[in-house]
Amino acid sequence: MCDFPRFAVLTIGSGGFLGSTVRDITLANALHQRGYAVSVYWMLETSGELVDDGIGQRMLCHGSRYHFRRPSLLLDRGLGPLLFLVPKARRVATVQRSAGYVHRLLEHLIGAQFGPRGEPDLARRLARYLKRDCITHLLLSFASLGPLALQARRHGGHAFDYLVTFQGDEQFAQYARTAGVFPAFRDGVNTALRASRWPAVAVSSDYVDRLVEELSLPRAAMQVVYNGVDLAATAAAPFAMLQQAFPGLREEVPIVLYLGRQDVEKGIDLLLYAVRLLAARQVPLQLVVCGSTALGQGYRNVLAAMGTHLGLQFHHGGAVSHALRQALYAHSHCVVYPSINREPFGLVVAEAMGQGTPVLVPDYGGVGEVIRDRKKAGGLTFRTWDSGDLARQLERLLSDRVLHATLARDARSVAQRFSVDAMTQGVLAHMQLAARPLAPGREALHVT
């Protein structure tokens, strides 16, 4: 007899969806900390280091499955486990050296999911996992995985409900276009929405608008539940930690920080142009750019070359530890999020405000919702794609002490809307489930 409810999270562990993975595992951990039984099912890659002890993990399929346009069971179940004997850092580095390989895997995945037959063997495997783990509630990281869940449910033998979340599906829609299956993609997502017991979760109101405009989805089929991040106050690390990671940083000069994926849609080149404009005006600042990359080193190399061409000496790093991340937030004058994409949310923005650091974001997409709560704001906006306006707004943050102090004061208050508890309770309420408190004797251990 299954306990009720029992959750499983189905997520794609590819680095291109790192923010989505963090959100999903944060939710899984929060549910587990409240005493629910939780499992995590991975596709393509894993980030098992983010998962709390006591949460079961299964590999639904390896990235090797989609090496060719037609999914390969042999490469998935035979080669995949062997490749996973290689340390993850080495696997990821190897993939990133092959330009476009991750795009190819994801295009093949979507092409297979929305092909004439779908992926019956994968759906059967998912159905077996759900039955084995006695899952009653399947949480899908992406609405694009809805047809897979629906196909698994049609196999019968185990009853479960599923909830879909929209948080990066516009990228999958683009893969569907390049794979030539966009009409099937749009129809399949709509069918999966109708077959779910609940409306889909979308991570911002603007994202709902975008999905209605671009995918012709019914507005009534979606409801906003904002993402949650760890807002726990931490003692500021010594500035020496930053100097060790970024030699030459000076404590007396304001730090402007970009922290996040270094991929082309993040618009970091716009920030370089803006900083060059401010250098011409002799506005003192130090630029730090750091974070992982999902799609290869090409864009990082372009940024380095662009900095040299512009005569900029900026501090350029890769992925950072949680401790260094918190130290960067604590010692930065502001965080800039210059994305050229119509971002659904913006976890880094919420995290920075949670530490009392003002932010600067484009006036486009769901990220603009993150910085405001009624009359309070934790940052400023600039005109999207406009490096000149980005420079003007950045100069305001650097030169207007009263404005900066006001934004810093209000940032923590604004960020409270995006706590892990708020997200968890929002998802549970959405599914008409009672919110449990933390299990006795347990502390919240949020993903970072």
Task: Give a verbal description of the structure.
It is a single chain. The protein has helices at residues 18-33, 73-83, 88-96, 101-113, 120-132, 146-154, 169-178, 182-195, 205-215, 239-245, 268-280, 298-310, 322-331, 347-354, 367-370, 387-399, 401-415, 420-430, and strands at 6-12, 37-44, 56-62, 137-140, 161-166, 200-202, 222-224, 255-259, 286-290, 315-316, 334-336, 359-362, 372-373, 376-377, 379-382. It has two domains: 6-228 and 420-430, 3-Layer(aba) Sandwich (Rossmann fold), CATH 3.40.50; 239-418, 3-Layer(aba) Sandwich (Rossmann fold). Helix 6 (146-154) packs across helix 8 (182-195) and helix 10 packs across helix 13. 48% of the residues are buried. With 448 residues, it is of the alpha/beta class. It has a seven-stranded parallel beta sheet with strand order 3-2-1-4-5-6-7, with helices on both faces. Strands 10-9-8-11-12-15 form a six-stranded parallel beta sheet, with helices on both faces. A hairpin with a 2-residue loop joins strand 13 and strand 14. Keywords: Transferase. This is Glycosyltransferase involved in cell wall biosynthesis. It holds the Pfam family Glycos_transf_1.
